[in-house]
């Protein structure tokens, strides 16, 4: 079974942190990412780009309209994603718990959401 992991963060929390504290927190992420990938179960892992470069497409009057920023109206936004293939939900949870957002969640106000996928490959 494949699972999508979404790593959420609260931009205002990071904006309120001292730059050195953000740097110290974020510097821990590569080693934690590598530990998760070392399981051999991670199919995709990515950090998402800066929020100010996000675009939302929505159909209005039969035409696609483009607007700035994330569509979701919430305090938390998705900052990263990963897809893992696991033999069970327990295994998926064990692997997801290695993600930096799960390991450092309290410090950075991050959270991970794990979603089972019905996965189809194009082509």
Please provide a brief summary of the model:
This protein is an alpha+beta fold and 123 residues long. It has helices at residues 11-16, 19-26, 29-37, 89-96, 100-103, 105-108, and strands at residues 2-9, 42-47, 55-60, 63-68, 77-85, 111-117.
In words, what does this structure look like?
The chain has 123 residues and is an alpha+beta fold. It has a single domain, classed as Alpha-Beta Plaits, CATH 3.30.70. The chain contains six helices and six strands. The strands form two sheets. The protein has a four-stranded antiparallel sheet with strand order 2-5-1-6. Strands 3-4 form a two-stranded antiparallel ribbon. Strand 3 and strand 4 form a beta hairpin. It starts with a strand and ends in a 6-residue tail after the last strand. The model has no long low-confidence stretch (mean pLDDT 87).
| CATH classification, class level | Alpha Beta
Order of helices and strands: EHHHEEEEHHHE
Mean residue pLDDT: 87
Helix residue percentage = 25-40%
Task: Give the strand content.
Answer: 25-35%
Named CATH architecture:
2-Layer Sandwich
Rg over C-alpha atoms, rounded to the nearest angstrom: 16 Å
Largest sheet properties: 4 strands, antiparallel
Q: What characteristic shape results from the CA principal axes?
A: flat
Residue windows where pLDDT falls under 50 for at least 5 positions? none
Please give the number of β-strands: 6
Q: What order do the strands of the largest sheet run in, or round the barrel if closed? A: 2-5-1-6
Q: Cα distance, first to last residue?
A: 20 Å
Quick one: CATH superfamily? Dimeric alpha+beta barrel
Enumerate how many helices there are, as a single number: 6
Overall tally of structural domains: 1
* Main structural class: alpha+beta
CATH fold label: Alpha-Beta Plaits
């Amino acid at each position: 079974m494949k699972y999508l992991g979404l790593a959420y963060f609260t931009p205002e929390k990071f904006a309120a942190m001292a730059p050195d504290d953000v740097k110290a927190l974020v510097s821990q992420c590569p080693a934690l990412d590598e530990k998760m990938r070392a399981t051999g179960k991670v199919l995709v892992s990515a950090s998402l780009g800066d929020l100010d470069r996000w675009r939302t497409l929505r159909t209005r009057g039969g035409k696609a309209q483009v607007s700035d920023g994330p569509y979701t109206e919430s305090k938390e936004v998705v900052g990263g994603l990963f897809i893992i293939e696991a033999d069970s939900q327990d295994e998926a949870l064990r692997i997801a718990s290695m993600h930096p957002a799960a390991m450092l969640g309290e410090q950075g106000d991050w959270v991970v959401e794990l979603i089972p996928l019905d996965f189809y490959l194009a082509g």
